[in-house]
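Task 17 of the worksheet. Students: predict the tertiary structure of the chain below and write it out as structure tokens. Keep your answer in the requested format; marks are given for formatting as well as content.
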Amino acid sequence: MLFLIYNRLSLQLKNINMNSKKNIHDKEHIAFEKRYWLRISNVCNNCCIFCHDSNSNKDTYFIDKKELYPVIDNAFNAGYKRLILSGGEATIHPDFIEIIKYAAETGFNHIQAVTNGRMFAYNSFAQSAVINGLTEATFSLHGHTKELHDKLTGVQGAFVQTLKGIKNLIDTGHCIINIDIVINKLNYKNIEDIIKLMSGFGIFEYDLLYLIPFGRAFENKNDLFFDINEALPYLKNVFEYSKNPLYHIWTNRLPAQFLENYENLIQDPIKLHDESAGRKLMFEKYYKTLNLFCDDKDRCMNCIYYGICNKFKDYFDIIVNKTFNKLAFNIYNEDLKVLISSINKLKILETTHSIFNKKIKSADKTDKLILKINNIKNAGRNSLLNFNNIVYRINHIDNDFFTDNYSGNFMVELNKKNNIIILRNLNLIETGKKKYSFYLPAFIRLSEAEKEYSNVMEVFDNLNATIYNCALCLNENGIQEISHDLNYDIINDGKINLRLLTDEYILNDYYVKSLRCTGCMHNDICRGMHINFIRLFGFKVLKEIE
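Model answer:
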């Protein structure tokens, strides 16, 4: 018995140490890892009262393995090395073992199943799965007692079978085990009890899933949805486990503002791509119906995907009505003279983006046009940076930028190199502050934000000029939002690219505030700071202005 316990513990520790998940860069590597999710059926042997997929599971089916094999081949050839099998319940597929075996023989070195675990209660099934290539299993466990777990899963005896399945897989000595827990009104007081129970099995990795208003979760919303402020003291007890090097806690869809002091637990925004992919069919129907089936106030107020849905509708409106709010162009060396000359005369401009392939009218003559210039050195500076109707948005400046005499209006990016030059020239910026403004860029990767935000807090403390994308509590000249570019690639060929749409949402719209911000006089007009700024500096940098 002691030998088995040692094997279980060493296997789980090997997994934790191998991934080094406490380091933000390694956590990012895991979040960005290429994983191929393969749904092999929509049939499930549980009937969870919070199931998000029940709306789409009216027609039950198992996908034939002959249809799955080419998909597995294509995924591997596309560079994926990690395969995740899901359902419904993947393990009840009649060819589950054969699918695992085929994936392993194809070359996948990591094969994972997301499961309720009941089939693994049959020891021969558990042994066969591991022998044929299963390397990881994520078990869904939602209660610490059979009464609670069985009530939530809708099946008597599910708790006992799931625990037996966990034990059988651990006993193989060759399978990593982790736990998914869906937080709801019935179990939020017992999440820590589940962790204590599973710790006895040598399991130290947990993903806390927040409810979203789909399927039976929405049908049973009165029984399941909860006031997170009331649940927070219990959840904080669980968050504290993340400070123990033995444990690793993930969160899934949990609103970031409730993770103050635990910002390392904020879900990487890149995971929103999984949400986009999971709603692809819903958006495809929108082209025909002009309606999202879930579009109502009760759902939207509880859904993390609300902002992306709105952005989808905005871009769809652009496709249908050819509407444009702002014009912005990327300017490079060879095109600079032509484009600026056209803009100066307020002539019709031409975009090279393939969606339109035609000339579009310029912005209203009273508006300033924004031109993005990557590097000031390439801008033909003396003759081409002096048009007063243009705001030049510049990514990279040089040491002489603030001493040169330009009559244009400049919006300078705050980044690692620029920040050093800015701090050296604070007096010059002060005397010409009507000409200079600044903006804080956003980044999809936390590691890139960590690099480029070097010295940015010192800039906030000392710079007396307009700063876009900055909360007023960080700089009294902060302005909340900069007019960002219309990304024509998102609507290429008359269809919306969900991957690019999600990237734009992350970069331009994923801003969060502290719960304390409700006491600030600017709360109604402030959207907070970008999600990766908060993940890096913490909510503590936001101060209420009374």
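Marker's comment: The chain has a mean pLDDT of 83. Residues 2-254 form a domain with the TIM Barrel fold (CATH 3.20.20.70).
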